From TrEMBL:
Protein name: Phage tail protein
Superkingdom, taxonomy of origin: Bacteria
Species per Swiss-Prot/TrEMBL record: Streptomyces badius
Short name of any one Pfam family annotated for the protein: Spherulin4
Length: 283
C-alpha cells in the first residue's frame, strides 16, 4: 500500500467518479497508426491527447497529423451531439492539445506564442500541453502571463469551444499557486516503482479530481487495479498507465528526440484498461 499523506477528504474519487485518459503524446501517425486510431474509437474514455510533431508544431502542416487531428475532432463532435452514446467521457473532454515545451521556464515567450498560433491555425487544437513546466514559486508570474495569453488565443479560435483546455506538465507537485494558472496539472510523471509509494500534497485536496493527472510507466498488468486505486485515492481524474519502460522500447516506437519515450505507444494491456475505466465501470 502506498504511503499517502493526504487527509481523508482527499480520497474524493473513491466513490466511483470516472477516470479518463490523458495521452502525453503518441509517436507520429505514420509510426503509430494503431495508437491514433484507438483514440478516435467510440467508447475510448479520452479526456485529451497531445499532438507533438517536432517538439512543437513543426515548420509546416503535416498531412498525416492533419488527418489524425480531423478524426479526433469528428469523434468529439459525434459525442457532443449524442451520436455516440458510449462516448460519455469524450463528450466532456476529448480534446487535441498542442505540445508547447517550456524548457523549465527558459523558452522565450514569443517563441511559445508563435508555436501556439501555428497549432491553432494548422491543426485547430482545443488547448495546449505545457511540457517541462516549471514548478517553483518564482516562475509562476511568467507562467500566468503565458496561460492568460493562450486562453485568449483559444477563445478567439473556432476550434476551442468553452475556451479550450490548458494542462501544465510539471510531473511533480508544484507550488500551489499553479493550480489557478491552468485547467489541469500533471502532478506525477514517472515509474511505477516510485508511484506505488508516492505521497500526495495536502493542498490538492482543495480541488476536484479533474484538476490533476498522473502518468506512470512500467506498471505491470498484475498491478493495474492497484495503480487505479492510487490514482483515485490521490485525487487524480486523468491518467495514462503503461507497461512500457523509459529504458527499453525494443521496437523503437518510443524514440523521440533521441530519448526513449514510454508514452509514445499503446501499453500491451490497452483493451483491458479501456474496459476497466470505460462507460459504466467503477470500482
Amino acid at each position: 500500500m502506498p504511503y499517502l499523506t493526504a487527509p481523508a477528504d482527499a480520497r474524493r474519487t473513491a466513490g466511483g467518479e470516472q477516470l479518463g485518459f490523458g495521452v502525453p503524446g503518441y509517436a507520429h501517425p505514420l509510426l503509430a497508426p494503431a495508437e491514433w486510431a484507438e483514440l478516435a474509437r467510440p467508447g475510448t474514455p479520452l479526456h485529451w491527447a497531445v499532438l507533438n510533431i517536432a517538439n512543437g508544431p513543426g515548420s509546416r502542416p503535416d498531412p498525416h497529423c492533419l488527418e489524425a487531428a480531423g478524426r479526433l475532432r469528428n469523434a468529439r463532435e459525434r459525442a457532443l451531439h449524442g451520436e455516440a452514446p458510449s462516448d460519455t467521457v469524450r463528450a466532456s473532454g476529448g480534446r487535441l492539445l498542442g505540445h508547447l515545451d517550456l524548457a523549465h521556464g527558459e523558452r522565450p515567450f514569443g517563441e511559445l506564442i508563435a508555436d501556439a498560433r501555428s497549432f491553432i491555425d494548422w491543426y485547430r487544437v482545443g488547448g495546449f500541453y505545457l511540457a517541462r513546466c516549471p514548478a517553483d514559486r518564482d516562475r509562476l508570474p511568467a507562467v500566468r502571463r503565458l496561460t492568460g495569453t493562450l486562453h485568449a488565443l483559444l477563445a478567439e479560435s473556432d476550434s476551442a469551444d468553452g475556451g479550450g483546455r490548458l494542462v501544465l506538465g510539471h510531473g511533480t507537485h508544484p507550488y500551489p499557486g499553479y493550480a489557478e494558472a491552468a485547467d489541469q496539472l500533471v502532478t506525477f510523471q514517472g515509474p511505477w516503482t516510485d508511484y506505488r509509494w508516492s505521497q500526495v500534497a495536502e493542498w490538492t485536496a482543495d480541488y476536484p479530481p479533474d484538476r490533476f493527472a498522473h502518468f506512470v510507466h512500467g506498471v505491470p498488468r498484475t498491478h493495474l487495479e492497484e495503480a487505479m486505486r492510487i490514482a483515485r485515492w490521490q485525487g487524480a481524474g486523468t491518467i495514462f498507465f503503461t507497461d512500457r519502460s523509459d529504458r527499453s522500447d525494443r521496437d523503437g516506437w518510443g524514440e523521440r528526440n533521441g530519448q526513449s519515450d514510454p508514452f509514445a505507444a499503446l501499453p500491451s494491456y490497452w483493451d483491458e484498461i479501456v474496459s476497466r475505466i470505460g462507460p459504466g465501470i467503477s470500482e
